[in-house]
Design goal:
This protein is α/β, with parallel strands linked by helices. It is built from 13 helices and 21 strands. Bound molecules: iron/sulfur cluster. The site of iron/sulfur cluster has 10 residues, from helix 6.
Length: about 425
Amino acid sequence: MLYHIVTYGCQMNVHESEKIAGILKKEGGELCPDIEKADLVVFNTCCIRDTAEKRALGNIGALKKRKRENKDFMIAVLGCMTQQEGFAEMMREKFPFVDIILGTNNLHLLPYYIKLKDKKNSVDIDRANGGTYDVNLTSDTFRTSFPNAWVNIMYGCDNFCSYCIVPYVRGREVSRPPKDVLNEIKFLLDEGYKEITLLGQNVNSYRYEDYDFKRLLAEAGNSGKKFRLRFMTSNPKDFDKDVIDVIKSSDNICKHIHLPAQSGSDGILRLMNRKYTAARYLDLVLAVRENIEDALISSDIMVGFPTETEEDFSQTLDLVKKSRFSQAFTFVYSPRSGTVSAKMEDVGAEVKKRRITELIRVQNKITKEISEGFKGLTREVLIESAEGDNFFGRTDNGRVVTFEKSNGFKIGDFVNVKITASKSSSLTGTPL
Ligand code: SF4
């Protein structure tokens, strides 16, 4: 059976697709890059943003004709979109030609439903059973991103930020046993992986018996080999000095921290239910800068949250300027049905457009200035991919570096590169 997976959304979903691919490979399936030739198309969906949801439904709808013409062709819809209240009913009504709909906690049931003779829009969703399927999947995950590998440390989220649908669809926080996480890291390092990213919606609230995130991070970083350890995502309310100390004291933990600020206005942060203030955020930025040499911080910033005034927005710009993010993922607020903020007063499309344009302008300038500061420096780069005559890699603190293929280097090598030029968020260099 040839299968093709279409993935929407964040890194969490990209890694989930690797698990789905592993499940199908174990059953004798073969990954097919061409959707037209596949016997089974799996849509691994995401409902965090409206745009990803609309795109997924459009792409599913586009397969209706093919399904009508070929009854053996199968369509499966997985991912967090399926976990929304009323989703299965909507699919039955509008997309009855879809064969299988599975929730994020039931990926392992995919082979069962593929073999089921009379599928008829089979739906299997379990909102209460966060992540328990993955214990046996460590070695079965079909990874395609060497030298990088992702490792889940927890699932779900308890924070209920007022704009976010994750806690409703992914359920409450469930931390994986540290033994499983550390074994998976050991397995990956033995397999030759060079960079591991610990994944969770809010990694800093990891807790399993007497392990907290700080202890897990310290032990993971001390795995005895040279490799890079990253983690995402952190909520600033739980990120603290102890974690900074662990990063500082480890050679393997990368000096790049992704710390989503979302807004620089205390009033908006309160409405977002983020549970920190702009001042607390800036204190964390300062603590990172003072304690970790060469550290870079990236962030997520949202504009146009309901009721956001010009003053609120100017406080966000102020925070961006003071924080000097190496990079920021900027986006416009869009309401998600069922969340608290969906009932609040919208600021309108025009205002959002003007503010996002200004925010991007301010951040782009900072991004460019930070890149320019690399010129003339020599930095260790992990080669992550190649295209044409060039290698692409990243510095420990997360800057993308391009350099010409030479000296017999290969993907997965650590190379010292002298930075000769910069362009926006990327650098060019010469290997030494
Ligand atoms: S921390 Fe907030 S934004 Fe992040 S997943 Fe949890 S509820 Fe959503």
